[in-house]
Amino acid sequence: MGEKSQRGYVEFGEFRSERAGVKKVGTFAGVFCPVVLSMFSALVFIRMGYLVGNAGLLVTLGQFALAYLIVVFTVTSICAICTNGAVEGGGVYFMISRTLGPECGGAVGSLFFFANVVSSALCISACTEALVENFGPNGYLVGSNPGIPDGWWYRFLYRSILNAIGLGVSLAGASLFARTSLAIWVTILICLSSALISFFVTPPAKIDSPDTNRLVNTTAFNYTGLSSATLYENLFPSYAHDYTADGQLVDFASVFGVLFTGVTGVMAGANMSGELKNPSRSIPWGTLSALVFTALWYVALSVLTAATCSRELLQNNYVYLLPINVWPPFIAVGMLMATFSAGLSNLIGASRVLEALAKDNIFGSLLRPMVSRSSNPVLAVLTSWLLVQIGIMADSLNAIAQVNSVLFMTSYLAINLSCLGLDLASAPNFRPTFKHFSWVTSLLGFAGCVALMFGLRALYACGAALACGALVVALHLLSPAAADPTWGSLSQALIFHQVRKYLLLLDPRREHVKFWRPQMLLLVASPRHSAPLIDFVNDQKKGGLFVVGHVRVGELCGAGDPLADEHKYWLKLIDHLKVKAFVELSLARSVREGAAQLARLAGLGAMKPDTVLLGFRDAAPPRDFFRDPVSPYKTEQFDLECGEVIFPPRGPLGARLSAAEYVRIVSDVLCVNKNVCLCRHFHRLDMAAVERRCPSLKYIDVWLVELMAPSCEEPFTVRGLFALQLAAVVRSARGWQHLALRLRAVAGPAAPPPALLGNVPPPLAPASLSSPSINARLLLFTEAGRTVTLGPPALAGLAPAAPYALGERLERLTKLLRINATTHIVNEWPDPQEFSRRGSDEGRDTYQNVSLDYLQVVNSIIKRSSEATAVTFVQLPSPPPLSPQGSPSDDLVCEQYLKVLDEFTKELPPTILVRGLKSVTSTSL
C-alpha cells in the first residue's frame, strides 16, 4: 500500500477509485444545495403567478404532481444506476453511456449537454428579467428614478455580462461554486421565508402593473390577502395572453412547459458526480431530499398565491411577490441569486458533460481538445459559455422553457429506458443497493416522458427524436468508441436475453422445406487466401446462418486456451470483410477430427449449418489477398501484431492435407447427413466486377447432370434441385440480380405421351419436390387427386425422344418453383461407357476406370459454355467408399477421385461442386 497510497488511489483488477481525500464535496453542498437551487431557478420567484393565474390552483397542483411523479420515477432509476457501480465525471451522461452503449449514450449525452446549455440560457434570461423589473425604468426598487435602461439590446448586454460572470466563476473551478452554494441556499431560504410570512402580514393593496406589460391599460390590480373568495376564483383555469411573449395566448402545454423547468434541476447533483466524495451515496440521498424540500415550497407558494392574489394580478404581474413582500429587497435578492446560481450550475454541468464526451472519444478528434489535464476543463467551459451566449439571444423566457423541457424529458426518458432494459435483461451484475426501484417505476417514468413530450409539444419532441436518431446512426458508423470492446451495451444484454428465448422456441422437429434457408459452414485454412470465397458465401446465405470455421492442430496443454488470442483476430477479419458471419475455431489432433467436430457441433439448437463448404484441394499457388496491392481486400492489420504475422501465409491445401484425409472429411460431412460443396477457382472471382455489372460477366450456370451417370432424369433428383436452389439464392442476392440463370441438362428419353398417363390432362402440376430419399429419381405430378409417376419405370421400352421434351419439363419445373431461368439442353455430352477401359464397375474401382479423355471432353464442353459465366454449379460425384480403419489402397483411391474432380473442373470459372442430401424446394403454399 505504500506506493499506491502516495499516488492517492486504490486499484482492484481493472477498477480504479480515487481516494476520498481528493474529492471534498459532500452530499449537502455537492448535491442537495445544487439541486434545490437549480429547481427553484426562474420558477419560484418569477413564474408562480404565470402558473396559478392561467392554469388555476387545481391544474397547477395537478401539473406539479404529474411532473414530480415522472421526476420521482426518474430519480429512482438514477439512484439504481449510481448505486450499481462507481459513477465518474459526466453524471447522467456517464450513467446512460455505460448502460446503453456509446451510440445511444453519446446521442442522449449530446442532447443532455444542449439541455444544460438551454437551461443556463433560460436562467440568465430570468435573471435579466428580474434585474429589469427591479432596477429598470420605474422598477420596484428604484421608484421614479431612471434606473438602468431597458430594451432588447440592453437586455442582451445584461445577459452577456451575467454570462461572463458565470464564465469567470466556472473557470475558477466547480469546487468554488460548491463551497458557496450553501451560502446561496441559506440566502434564498431567507428570501422565501419572507415571502411566506408576507402572505399572512401584508394587508390588501393595489399592486401596480409593470412597465413591460403593454397588453392592458389598467395600472393596478388587487392583492386581497387571505380570502376564501379569492381562493375559489383561482381554483380553475382561465388562460390569458402572455405579456412577456408578444401577447401569445397561453395554453395547458405552455404552462406545463414552464412548470417543468422547476423540476429539471434534479440532474444538477448527478452532474457534479466528478466532484463528490461518494457519488453512489450522495446522489440518491441528496436528490431525493431536495425533491421533498422543493415540493413542499412549491405547494405552499401555489396555495398561498391562489388565496391572496386576484386573477388579474397574477396574469399581468409575474413578479407580484416583490411588491407584497414585507421588505421588497428580500425578493429582489432571491430572484437574482436563484436564477444566477441555477444558470451557473447548468453552465458547469454542461462543461462536465462535454468533457466526459471528449474523454470517451465519442466524437473522435472533434472534441479531443476539450479534454483537460487539470481538474477544470477550461476549453469545455469556454465552449459551453459560447453556446449559452447564442441561446440568450432568444428574448422570451417562456419560449426557451418549452425547448428546455423537451430536452430534459429526452434525458429522463433515456435514464428510465436504461434501467428498464437492465432489469428486463436480468443482467446478473445489475444489483443496485438502492432498493426502492423496479421495472414498473422505470416503465412508468419512460411512458410518462413519451406521453408528455409528444402530447404537449409534438413538434419539439419530433425534432429531439430525429436529432437523437441521427446521432445514434452517425455515432454507430463513425464513432471510434463504437468499436471499443470495453464499453458495455445494454443492447447486447437484451439481444442475448431475447435470442435465447427464441432459440428455445425454434423447434427443429417443426422444420418445413417451405421455409428452408441456407445455413452454411465454411471451413477455412487461411483467410488471407480465401477472402473472395468468404465474401461470396456471405451473399449465398440469403438471411441464413453463416459460420466461418477453422481447425488448429494441437492439444490443450494446461497453459490456457491456445485459441483465445486467435479468436479476436478472426472477429476483426469478419469486420474487415463486412460479412455477417459467426466464427467457430476448433483445436484437434488432426484437421479431419476438427472438421468433424465443427460439422457436427457448430451452431446452437435448431440454428445449425446444414451445408459444409470446403476449398478445393489442388497444387495451385495461393494468392495472398491481404498483401496484393490490387486486391479489394488489401489490409495491413493482419500482417503484424506484437511483432508476429497474424494468419501467416500457407502453401496449397494439397501440401497440407493428404488426399485420403481430404476425401474422408467430405465423407464425414455426408455421413452426418449434411450437404457438401467443394469450391474451386474462387481466387479468380472479382466481386467488385460482379457488383458493377461488368459486361464480361453475364450468367450463373447450373449443370444438372451427374458426371459418372448422365441421364435425362438427373435434373429432377434432390441433388439436382439442391444445386438449382443454391444458384437461385445467389442470383437473388443484391449485386447478383442482373446475372441470368442458365440451366443445362443432358438430352435423354422424353416424358411419356399423355396417352400413357390415363385421363390426366396437361398441364400437370408437381405435388412435391421434397422427397427425403437421397437416391430419388422420380418426379411426381398430380391432378384431381391422382398421382402419376414420370421417370424410368414409366419410360421403359420407349424410344429415345427429341431433346425438347426435357427442355419443356425443365421450363415447367422452373415456373412451378418461381425461378427465372433459361433452359439449355446439351446434345454432345459423351457416354462415359464409351470411354471406359474395363466397363464401369461399382465401388472402389469406379474412379479408376474413368477415362481421362472423357473428363477432358466434358471439361471442354463446360468451358466452351462458360465464357461469360461468373459462377458455375456442377454436381459432385459421390466420394469412393473407404475402409473404416484405413488401408494403403485408400490413398490411391482418393488420389484418383480427386484427379477426376481436378480434370473435370480444370480452368473453369469459379466453380462449386455440389452434393445435396436434403430437399430444399417446394411448390406448396
UniProtKB/TrEMBL annotation:
TM ranges: 25-46, 66-87, 152-175, 182-201, 252-273, 285-307, 327-354, 375-394, 406-425, 437-460
Amino acid permease/ SLC12A domain segment(s): 32-521
GO molecular function annotation: potassium:chloride symporter activity
Keywords of the record: Membrane, Transmembrane, Transmembrane helix, Transport
Lineage: Eukaryota, Metazoa, Ecdysozoa, Arthropoda, Hexapoda
Protein name as it appears in the record: Solute carrier family 12 member 9
UniProt cross-references to Gene3D superfamilies, sorted A to Z: Amino acid/polyamine transporter I
InterPro entries in the record: AA-permease/SLC12A_dom, SLC12_C, SLC12A_fam
